[in-house]
Amino acid sequence: MLTYLIYTVKAILMAAAISGIVAGEVRLSGSKEQQRIISGGLAAGLLGALVVAVLRNHTNLIKTASLNSFIYSISLISFLALVLFLVLGAALKKKGIMEISQRIAAAFFLAALMVYDLPEVMMYPYKILLSEKTLFSTAYLMDMIGVLSGTVLSFLVYLAAKQCAERTGAKTIRVLMLLQMLLQEVIMVSGVFSVLLQNGTIRSNHTIFSFVVFVKNHNVWFLTASLLIAFLPAIGLLLRSVHVEEPYQNPAQHRKIIAKWRKNRRWAVSLLVFSLLGFLTVTVLDQINSREVTLSPVEEAQTDGENMIVPFEMVSDGHLHRFAYTAESGTQIRFIVIRKPNSQSYGIGLDACDICGEAGYYERDGQVVCKRCDVVMNISTIGFKGGCNPIVIPYEIKNSRIIIPISGLVEHEKKFRK
Fold first, then answer.
1. Within this chain, do residues 268 and 184 fall inside the same structural domain, yes or no?
2. CATH number of residue 364's parent domain
3. Which residue in 172, 184, 238, 274 is deepest, having the highest Cβ count within 10 Å?
């Protein structure tokens, strides 16, 4: 349960905080039509995320690198368009068309955000079922409680952030909204560079590679910064509620003012509490839940001098298996094999990826996880390029055996040199 609670909060809490601030900003200063535009962006994003989750669970139609490239592009373009329309709106003082343009850009940004963050969480029920085999097992129930708890906590952060944003000055909340979006764009830009590095569009560059690895390994920092920005309206409401000096003409108006600020304080405290719970989940609970992972031992594969040979009977149990070839230099070049769920095919690749290097993968709760960045692999996509997937290596299937050319392993020897 704890593992999936942490996974879920890490995946969607930042999106919840950003969406809440954006929804609150348009509720504060936008018309009903503009609010519908933002709601449409959120709805489109949710629907798109559901479609992606279903396709990723049941087909191989989704190419992770291609989809991510599209999402990154939409997110970056919509953010830049939003900034441009805000600047033009302030300079030209034409509220009507500029405000509509701003909301459309924000709606596209939110839609891209939903499709980027939500599919992984939507896939959890099916992924958990593959490992537990039945809906009625205690383990399945506990894991699903973790997913639902993380989802509810993130929704509460969204709701409280929206309510606090509605009660803050329009200029202030707009600045905070842009800061949160900027944090998300740093993550998106690192994703763009990651894809470009993986497909060879740009040459390997130490600075770019270091930037990509830093962002990937410090996502919690960006989540924390996003929560701190979301805190600010809540803190402002609490400070303003200490000395309320709104004029009133009769006791009824006074009672109404007191009730309003009591409600403001409750929403502010709620945001602080829910955000703090989210922060503790991805820091303290994650630390408790994470233990030093020792990779499983390397199994002995057959060899004919030119190929590594893995018989099906060694790897047909659905668990992760690790093999290695020792090069002339003494370097051990590892590769993994796992039978794909509900399939006769196998996921095969190096025990390394282009982003995290030779850290390796391990099996946890029926899932394949990167040891360095803790990203959960979609087992169905192992053997395909993209994301933190294992580096693809050549192989062929013959006579119920997996045959991997040693030459295809040796060309990656430098990945495993200490």
1. yes
2. 2.102.10
3. 274
3 state DSSP class of 341 = coil
b (16+ CB within 10 A) / e for 263-298: ebbebbebbbebbeebbebbeebbeeeeeeeebeeb
Q: Distance between CA 384 and CA 348 in Å, rounded?
A: 9
Q: What's the total number of domains in the chain?
A: 2
112 and 151 fall within a common domain: yes
CA pair distance 283, 76, nearest whole angstrom: 29
Fill in the DSSP letter of residue 239.
H
Alpha helices in 59-137 (DSSP H): 64-92, 95-132
Residues 284 and 260 in one domain: yes
Same domain (yes/no): 189, 315? no
The tokens describing 75, both together, are 């997110």
Q: In 3D, which of 183, 276, 193, 181 has the Cα closest to residue 221?
A: 183
13: pLDDT strictly greater than 90: yes
Query: Is there a domain that residue 297 lies in?
Result: no
pLDDT digits 0-9 by tens, 372-409: 766 777 787 788 876 678 888 888 988 888 999 998 88
Q: Starting from the edge strand earliest in sequence, which strands make up the sheet with 346-350, in order?
A: 321-326, 332-339, 346-350
Instruction: Answer whether residue 295 is part of any domain.
Output: no
Beta strands in 296-378 (DSSP E): 302-303, 307-311, 321-326, 332-339, 346-350, 361-364, 367-370
According to DSSP, the residues that pair with 303 across neighbouring strands are 308
What pLDDT band is residue 329 in, cutting at 50, 70 and 90? confident
Same domain, 372 and 265: no
d(CA 267, CA 74): 33
What is the domain range of residue 337? 302-416
pTM of the model: 0.70
126-151 pLDDT, tens digit each: 877 776 567 777 778 888 999 999 99
396's enclosing H/E stretch is strand 396-398
Residues 193, 233 share a domain: yes
Do 328 and 384 belong together in one domain? yes
Give 156's contacts (C-beta < 8 A, 6+ positions apart).
Answer: 270, 274
Residue 329 lies in a domain: yes
Count Cβ neighbours within 10 Å for each residue of 39-48 and write b for 16 or more, e otherwise. Answer: eebbebbbeb
